[in-house]
Amino acid sequence: MANSFAGFFFFFALLVSHGIVELEASHHVFKNLQTVQSTASTNQPYRTGYHFQPPRNWINGVMVYKGLYHLFYQYNPKGAVWGNIVWAHSTSQDLVNWTPHDPAIYPSQPSGINGCWSGSATILTGGKPDILYTGIDPKNRQVQNLAVPKNLSDPYLREWIKSPKNPLMQPTAQNQINASSFRDPTTAWLGPDKQWRVTIGSKINRQGLAILYKSKDFVNWVQAQTPLHSAKDTGMWECPDFFSVSVSGQNGVDTSLNGPSVKHVLKVSLDDTKHEYYTIGSYDNVKDIYTPDKGSVESDSGFRYDYGKFYASKTFLDSVKNRRILWGWINESSSVADDIKKGWAGVQAIPRKLWLAKSGKQLVQWPVKEIKKLRANHVSLPSKLLKEGSVIEVSGVTAAQADVDISFEISDFEKAEVLKPSWTNPQLLCSQKGASVKGSLGPFGLLVLASKGLKENTAVFFRIFKSQNKYAVLMCSDQSRSSLNQDNDKTTYGAFLDVDPLHQKLSLRSLIDHSIVESFGGGGKACITARVYPTLAINNAAHLYVFNNGSEAVKIAKLNAWSMKTAKIN
Amino acid sequence: MTKTIFLVILQAVISFTCLPVSYSASDLIETTCKQTPFFDLCVSTLQADPRSSSADVAGLAHIAADSVNAKATATLNQITGLLKSAGDPNLLKALQGCVDKYNAIIQADIPVAIEAIVKGNPKFAVSSATDAANEAQNCENSFANPPNSPITDSNKAVHDLSTVLESIASLLL
Predict the structure, then answer these.
(1) B173 touches chain A (CB under 8 A)
(2) What is the 8-class DSSP label of residue A135?
(3) Is pLDDT of A465 > 90?
(4) What is the largest CA-CA distance in chain B?
(5) What is the pLDDT of residues B38-66, one digit of tens each?
(6) Who has greater pLDDT, A168 or A58?
(7) pTM, two decimal places
(8) Residues near A358 by beta carbon (within 8 Å), at least 6 away in sequence
(9) Nearest CA to CA, how far is B46 from chain A (Å)?
(10) Residues of chain B with C-beta less than 8 angstroms from the C-beta of A113
(11) Nearest CB to A34: which of B108, B123, B141?
């Protein structure tokens, strides 16, 4: 396995990452409409400084590709809504600064004439990258197509050719695949028989499935007898992602790797709930069946990558830096009317390194270290006690474009509120107990994108509860006061954080970027991403505070904050 | 006499065999509309469209989208008419905001919803319908009271129809 990729590696001088390209989420192509070309306002308080987004219009899904870091993403060149979708393309040497190129894939043959939707890229033996993607055919059926680079000696891989044999996989009377529920092919992986496998999201009635296809030559595909995995009552499985993780350490591994040193992960995006869930389990690469570990389920009893706004995500293996990286699409929480006004919609999360937690029960994520190069104006607060009612400003950084990392230490747990047994839904609990609801151990945390006087603020915080003989930590991102503009979706998000506050410090890192707040609790054990649109807390009028609205004092063990410089995205 | 009876019986047989077709179409409309929060509105809207007699759920969703479009278009016309004679600056401001919101419904939400239904990506129909309902509600909320909204009925109609669309599209997920 390593050898076949090594060839490709040395071929590209600037080879940086193991090309797992993949396009998230499905989008239709609209031929006529959606040329809602706005006279977009020049006043742009919500555009991000260091998150990936195109100069305007719709972005959805990102595909990162081997070699130079490549980003392929679904893009509408004509409007801030879906439509006229093409595969736009950018490259980067550092995952931070990007160079745009011309669109790589767009409808031009019957098997994709009505849309070039999501897909993935795979590096084949010998190092050649191929893309499989869902096309919408003249009858509006979902089919799978192949595209290959036109010129392998172009390091930017700017042009792609669609196979004349397309579609390579399609719904037929024999296979009985639902033509409206067959999309998002994954990156392929090799089995011990040297055949490629790829999985495609589908459903039969309410049963979600990952349909499996096998191929010797990447062109002729045969459906496997059984799906890779399926689950009852989950509805359509979109954007499946199937990969291995090492059982120890943080390094990434190839999906083809199997055995006691790895576990496999299957992530699915559920159409029904717009949430993504992953399971951790074992892959029988002879029978081609994936079985999640006991207790690992595709529902709210299981795990999500992110408990806020985060969908159509995909990982890729960066074989140069030996890590698996996760990209996610963050759409808007503003109204479509506002999106049209501002002239754009959608951003990408900061790419996150992904690995298996020591417990083996969940994955951990952390922003790639490269973004640290954007840090400037380091501010740190000495360790101090945060008393009841404290609101302490963190000044000296550009609060609208910042990176802040804080950890708390609690010594006295006596007064912790008791977690009622019925309080099992963290999102609901956070909604009911927002930042302004006093508690005992909490709420304490950060007020970001806050206006002076706090009329507007987004609160990211913890509450600690006593639960049987242990302590439960609730992490919330409370957007209820994020903006005076009532047209926004200000839903609160929440997650339980698997950290023992008795023996560990409680850490929180937030990446703040004008209209996006990405928060990481416990070093990345729970992540919550939110979109907010303050009307007062904009640019220089945005502030950053640490607060404690609980009756019990907590100690700030350390606090570091940085301004974040603006990256070159377009 | 026997001929008449025969014809009557023949007529009855023909009517009876023709009955199940329209029966099952209304049946689908009923079962579908029961899963929306506005049953009566849903039924009357769908039945008013001749396509509904042979539509599947996706077809019913398409009809619902068209009806939101029609009502939104009529409301937009109403708003632009009111703008001509609006003097109060608060009223003017609210109406102008409503123009943007209704344009979003007509030019963005509905076309996106229809494409989503036709191409089998219903979550976008659901989110577009949700946005359409929100735009109508936001428009209604934008009137300062005073002056009161002059288009409350229209906003409610668009909002409720959008909610019906959202519910039907959810059945396709």
Answers:
(1) yes
(2) E
(3) yes
(4) 79
(5) 999 999 999 999 999 999 999 999 999 99
(6) A168
(7) 0.91
(8) none
(9) 23
(10) none
(11) B108
